[in-house]
Amino acid sequence: MAAFEVLLHRYCTRPGLGGVPPDDDGLLLERVFRRWAEAERAMGQGRPRQALRWLAEARALDSTTPDPVAAAELLAGETRCWVALDEPREAIGPARAAWERWLALANGPSSEVILPAARALLAVLSSPDPPPKLSDAEVFAAWLEDQLVIEFQRSVGLVLGLLADVHRVDLADEVANDYLGWIERFTPKAGQGLLRARFALRLGDVYDRCDDSARALAVLQDGLQRLDGYADQPEISNLRGQLTFNAGNQHAKLGQLEDALEAFTSAAEIGVGGRVEAALRARYAVAFTKYQLGREGGLIEELADLACRYEEVLAESTAGGSDLDVRQGLDVVYRLWLKLETARLDTTDARAVVRFLHLVFALKEEEGKFCSVTQAMERRPDAAFHSEITVLLERLTSTATGVLVVESVPDAVLLVSLSGGSVAVQLLDRDAAAVVGDLIAEQRLATDRLSNRAIPASSPPSPRHVQACQAMWQALDPELRAHIDGARVLAVVMDSSTDLGELPIEILHDGTTYLGLRQRIVRSPALRDLNLSLSRNLVNARPTGTAIVVRAEDALVHADAETSMAVAAATDLGMTPSVHRAPEPSTLLHDLGAGADLLHYVGHGLADRIGEELPLGPGKRLTARGFEAIGPAPAPFTMLSACLAGRSRQLRTGQEHGFVTALIRTGAPGAIAAAYMVPDHLAAEFTALLYYFAKDALLTDAMLLARQTLAEDGYHPAAWGCFVQHGAADLRLGRPHLSEPSTWSEWASRYLASGTEEHLRAARDRLADDTRLPANLAQAIDDDLRALAEHDAAHFAATDEAVVDQLSSTSQAAIVAAMVRSYGELRHATADAADREHKAAVIVAQSRTIERILGDSYLLVAAAVELRKHLLPFGDNKTVLDAARRRLRWLSADEEPLDGARRALIGEETHV
């Protein structure tokens, strides 16, 4: 390693700076590079947001006459931050600017330009020691080797990848021509073949992602030819394996399956890049091609083994880019596995159904743990199994909520419906799924014409539009249709990684009327979010009486009238509204974090595969990631009266992302947003009707009534169906965050956190009325609650916990009953200090899993209180403690009962 690389590594492994560097008297370039170096350190620690803040400080210092080298480094750093955050829209601007600067430096590296910046960078990286004593020629050579060569190559890769995201082949060709021209002019002839072969991988990927397989194949085959004559060194073999593998992908896309299988098999034998993930990818490619050729013998077993290995690698990977590749690879394995499992699912086998639903769940569960779930089920085939899925199934049954999941699998669309404890599955193959694409296309056409005012909102749908709505309904299996019709509320979970996210479920037509005019429908980003939205103990906050109406600065004709309407509606709901006109994003987020019941945004919205934003005003943009920062109060119920704001996308991590997803995951009880393009006058009409009906009705009923009213007035289905509801169904706008428990287990959780007689009495009363439990089990649980309240240590010392194992069909009851027992043993039956510490550690460890399964903030608070009594707040313990402190603001309706917990968690801190 040369000077800069060694020093940068040393700098980034030292302790970081806590605030503004103490360099006010330093040279300007040194001050800039110190902040750049802190950004590099933050990125190395997996903290891209902190890195962005350092880079912003650096840019502010160097804004007047930016140094060419510093500007290139800062732009490159910003690009890497946005890429790490999976925000292509934000990354593409700095990526293009960085490429232009690195290209200019590479085409004519001048010591006069480079030395001042290089010397400043050396001084920063060396501090507090003096910089190494190097001549100008040595500094210049070191910078070329450590910075220019590395950043130039990295920059071309980043910009090409981002241009592929937006399908700008023309701009990618310009970048490619500039890079290939640089190779011709500045590199030795003997090494040009290797450089061009390396570049063929990048350029072939661009053409592939832009759906030009023929051109991609030609580039990759050219790269392979340029390796002819090179000795089989490890680098050459790895590169040849990668090119062969990628060529196999293009053969497959061109329908040349035998050629593809030959290429994939060869790549697997050669080795693909020498990385574990690449080897797994090659194995999957062989398996998938065999599937395409109809050779399915042993395929499920191969996919199961592949998924297990992928999950192991994912668990071992870090916050770098490799884990994204692993997660994406795992996703395609899951989807093919899911398709094959669908064909053999026995829907009458409850345990098989739970296992199958866990595989559906895993598609959007970014940690990738399906194999560990199946292994746990297989280890104890006769034992009760409790998880997010079993809890969700209970909650769906108790609330008469149905579910429709729509996901893409290879060459098909998978539909899964749940209702009344039963499940139905259906695969629409490529031909049968044509109705899905037809409806999406008709919806796009209708919404485009409405938003462009080519047709009025009150116009009837075209015959083709009606036919598409009816054909989609008729394509559904009768059992799925029965599930949809039989539910009190239908929750819809859509695949956002493809165009399926645009499927307008609300306008399916049964030949008599549209689904959205006869059924209450809510959407959920993922099954996990649906489970949490059905929890009565996740959020329970008293009304703040505050409403925030945001009016973006734009020329929308009806926006001011809608703003006034929203103010009046909030007043009618008993809130005190305030209007924020083109606010600063940070100011708005601060006000939301202080607590509000309602947020109503009026303005434009943007959302697509590469990002989303609400343009608040000139130079003011609020992104979905901005909403993730709301706190400590829970996010408000939100009305986003803006085009496309109801859309979401699936990140490469597998995680759902979008405005609505961010709001729900920061405590919002629900949101309503436009999933399509919408004219502003229609937005104003719809929201006015919604608020009118929501004064006296649940939100799902208000949505239904608003749609029915517009439909009766002759509005186009694409008009009344453009707004969709997300989150909780049984929601009242006047008190959106209040939640009343419906089961004894939810009251018992509250009692564990509060210790109040009121919560204990409610838990025991509901327990006595729970007809699902045999009398002896109900009595045993009641005895535990009584003993816990009466400090009866002898009870917990004398009895065992066999009762819990008998609660096989009631996951929530089994989990909470076990926790009641654990708290009793900890608080009253344990005299030994070491034993108490051990039991407290077990409760804290369990709380992280249980909180994810139940979405129960009270259990999290209860565990954190025990943590403060018995354990030190380090590592994972500190994570639990911080999370519980934040959740206390989500439980403000129980502020008095939780006063003891609040004093234990937010009182005087012990300095450790």
Overall mean pLDDT score? 90
Q: Main sheet: which strands, in order across? A: 7-6-8-12-15-16
Distance between the termini: 39 Å
Q: Percentage of helical residues?
A: 55-70%
Using the CA coordinates, give the radius of gyration: 30 Å
Pairing-aware structural class of the strands and helices? alpha/beta
Beta-strand content estimate: 5-15%
Q: What is the number of domains? A: 3
Task: Tell me the number of helical segments per DSSP (H or I, 4 or more residues long).
Answer: 39
Which regions have little confidence, pLDDT < 50, spanning 5+ residues? 908-912
Any idea what the shape is?
Answer: globular
Please give the CATH class of the largest domain: Alpha Beta
The CATH architecture name of the largest domain reads 3-Layer(aba) Sandwich
What CATH calls the topology of the largest domain is Rossmann fold
Largest sheet: 6 strands, mixed
Total DSSP E strands: 16
Kindly report the oligomeric state of this protein: single chain
List keywords for this structure.
single chain, 912 residues, alpha/beta, Serine Threonine Protein Phosphatase 5, Tetratricopeptide repeat, Rossmann fold, 6-stranded mixed sheet, disordered C terminus
